[in-house]
């Protein structure tokens, strides 16, 4: 008897593609390269996304950066929380709603009601609360923020491919207008006010809609840009959902995975890259997570990056390993893990 | 006493060719004005300040600290050009096309150029100084062409350019508005240190400044960065008023 499974490739069968013969490159393979030689890549996302950038650059991929300190200041202008790790200084972006909001702000479509927090001799950006050198006045804040938002659009205009790593579904938002904060107010900066701040746990439908809207906005400034979606395999450091953190994590990652799938099915120019599966799937080695079962190891990241690069057309043999990044990169991985705003929510 | 780095030459302290510092009477007055002379080697060392401390008891010390750090770093326009928001600057607007930095970053950059000022003040206080007056340093000169012509002949900048692999014939000068902001920031940093150490900051006389906050043409020394003796005389008038009247 004939049936569809008879003609299915090996990768469709667990026994042949996971229980034995597992290949991250085969898992990552897509119908078209994620990126081709000479193309430029911009990225954003959670702490996990920051880990990938040094590997991308070490592989010779043109990584877009529009907001780096001038050379004379690079020794003093040192930022934590990923502000200088991504294509522009937006830092870690954990949710699709936060990405959408950033784009709306940059395009002049949305101005949050709670757009700054005044401290002693400083004006804090609620959407970049960990900046090492906050503004000292409203004037300075407005100038720096305008420049930052301009650089965000500049980065998206320059890129051929935009990689977005989905991190969380839980977020703290403004009760006034729904503005999403990257960290619960009061953890990194600012003050928590239950009358002004509320928890949102975005659903699959909301995340999907936010991603579609965000990508549409990006395409409005760069009509030819392509997208790659990944889901961070890093579990939640904490949940405010009243659920057990493990259950909350699985729910969150499931939502994000569904949303990523929905978007890639809807958009011919969007692809999914299975970083989540490579690190957290049942086939993954135990040492892909550290002892706390949360920190993703350098070994895991190297496997993820090798698979990513194998799905790109960079002119190198498909099986060639990514160039080994230097010791500073491994340290950067550890620092990136340690310096999440999400980490700040754990007492 | 008038002591400190290179800008004290404008205040009448002669250049010295002698290496060991020497305590000398500069003017018989009144008031009597002393100084410590030492061959200028780019900065003052511990031996110089020890000599100052040894003779400062009961005296008013007018202290000129650095004052050229913004020129040493950014007289030549960097690539990319940067600017920052600086309260108190004569031209607040950001220079078109410049990368805007947080002022805190610029402050952090220059912090090391002032790191020993507070320690030096404490040294003088430990030796019974009567009063310390931390002097504002001359504002920058507006005319980039004037500066370029001079620095191309100044050994200090020639050496710095050579070390950095910079062709002085191909450079441009940082816009005056940005240099003026850097100068304002450094004056503010020195003033903050002076106040924190319980001393007095003496800003440059306002009448030595153009409306755009740069140094008035009549006070330019014929080099890239220093003020002349007429400027020094104006500052001395202020110092003498402070010394004689006890006014801050």
Q: Could you explain how this protein is built, in words?
A:
- The complex is a heterodimer of chains A (347) and B (248).
- Chain A contains 11 helices and 10 strands.
- Chain A is an alpha/beta fold and 347 residues long.
- In chain A, the strands form 3 sheets. Chain A has a 5-stranded parallel sheet, sandwiched between helices. Chain A has a 3-stranded antiparallel sheet with strand order 7-6-8.
- In chain A, helix 3 runs antiparallel to helix 10 and helix 4 (96-106) packs parallel to helix 6 (204-221).
- The longest helix of chain A is centred in the last third of the chain and has 22 residues, at 245-266.
- Chain B is α/β, with parallel strands linked by helices and 248 residues long.
- Chain B has one domain (2-247): Rossmann fold, CATH 3.40.50.
- In chain B, strands 1-4-7-8 form a 4-stranded parallel sheet.
- The radius of gyration of chain B is 18 Å and the shape is globular.
- Chain B starts with a strand and ends with a helix.
At a glance:
The complex is a heterodimer of chains A (347) and B (248). Chain A is an alpha/beta fold and 347 residues long.
């Amino acid at each position: 008897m004939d049936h569809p499974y008879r003609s299915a490739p090996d990768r469709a069968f667990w026994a042949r593609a996971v229980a034995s013969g597992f290949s991250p490159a085969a898992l990552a393979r897509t119908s078209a390269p994620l990126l081709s030689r000479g193309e430029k890549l911009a990225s954003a996302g959670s702490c996990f996304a920051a880990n990938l950038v040094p590997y991308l650059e070490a592989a010779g991929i043109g990584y877009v950066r529009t907001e780096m300190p001038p050379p004379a200041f690079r020794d003093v202008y040192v930022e934590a929380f990923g502000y200088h790790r991504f294509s522009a200084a937006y830092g870690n972006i954990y949710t699709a709603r936060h990405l959408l909001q950033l784009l709306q702000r940059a395009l002049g479509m949305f101005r949050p009601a709670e757009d700054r927090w005044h401290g002693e001799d400083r004006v804090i950006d609620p959407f970049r609360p960990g900046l090492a050198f906050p503004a000292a006045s409203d004037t300075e804040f407005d100038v720096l923020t305008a420049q930052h938002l301009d650089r965000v659009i500049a980065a998206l205009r320059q890129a051929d491919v935009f990689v977005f790593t989905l991190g969380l579904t839980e977020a703290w938002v403004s009760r006034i207008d729904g503005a999403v904060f990257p960290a619960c107010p009061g953890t990194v900066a600012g003050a928590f006010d239950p009358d002004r701040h509320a928890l949102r746990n975005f659903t699959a439908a909301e995340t999907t809609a936010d991603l579609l809207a965000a990508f549409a906005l990006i395409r409005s400034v760069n009509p030819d840009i392509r997208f790659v979606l990944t889901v961070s395999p890093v579990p939640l450091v904490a949940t405010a959902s009243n659920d057990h953190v493990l259950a909350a994590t699985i729910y969150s990652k499931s939502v994000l995975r569904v949303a990523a799938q929905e978007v890639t099915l809807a958009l011919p120019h969007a692809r999914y890259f299975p970083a989540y599966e490579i690190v957290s799937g049942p086939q993954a080695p135990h040492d892909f997570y550290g002892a706390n079962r949360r920190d993703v190891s350098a070994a895991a990241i190297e496997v993820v990056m090798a698979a990513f690069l194998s799905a790109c057309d960079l002119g190198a043999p498909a099986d060639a390993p990514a160039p080994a990044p230097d010791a500073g990169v491994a340290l950067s991985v550890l620092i990136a893990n340690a310096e999440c705003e999400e980490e700040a929510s754990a007492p | 006493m008038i002591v400190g780095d290179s800008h004290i030459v404008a205040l009448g302290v002669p250049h010295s060719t002698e290496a060991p510092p020497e305590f000398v009477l500069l003017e018989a007055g009144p008031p009597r004005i002393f100084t410590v002379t030492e061959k200028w080697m780019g900065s003052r060392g511990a031996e110089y300040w020890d000599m100052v401390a040894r003779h400062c008891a009961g005296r008013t010390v007018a202290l000129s600290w650095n004052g050229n750090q913004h020129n040493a770093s950014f007289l030549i326009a960097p690539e990319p050009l940067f600017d920052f928001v600086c309260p108190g600057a004569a031209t607040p607007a950001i220079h078109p096309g410049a990368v805007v930095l947080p002022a805190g970053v610029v402050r952090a950059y220059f912090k090391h150029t002032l790191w020993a000022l507070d320690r030096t003040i404490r040294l003088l206080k430990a030796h019974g100084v009567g009063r310390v007056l931390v002097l504002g340093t001359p504002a920058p000169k507006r005319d980039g062409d004037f500066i370029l012509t001079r620095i191309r002949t100044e050994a200090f900048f020639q050496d710095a350019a050579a070390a950095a692999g910079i062709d002085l014939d191909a450079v441009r000068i940082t816009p005056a508005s940005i240099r003026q902001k850097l100068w304002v920031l450094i004056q503010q940093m020195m003033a903050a240190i002076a106040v924190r150490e319980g001393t007095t900051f003496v800003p440059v006389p306002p009448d030595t400044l153009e409306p755009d906050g740069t140094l008035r043409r009549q006070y330019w020394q014929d080099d890239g960065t220093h003020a002349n003796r007429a400027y020094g005389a104006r500052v001395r008038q202020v110092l003498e008023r402070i010394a004689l009247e006890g006014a801050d």
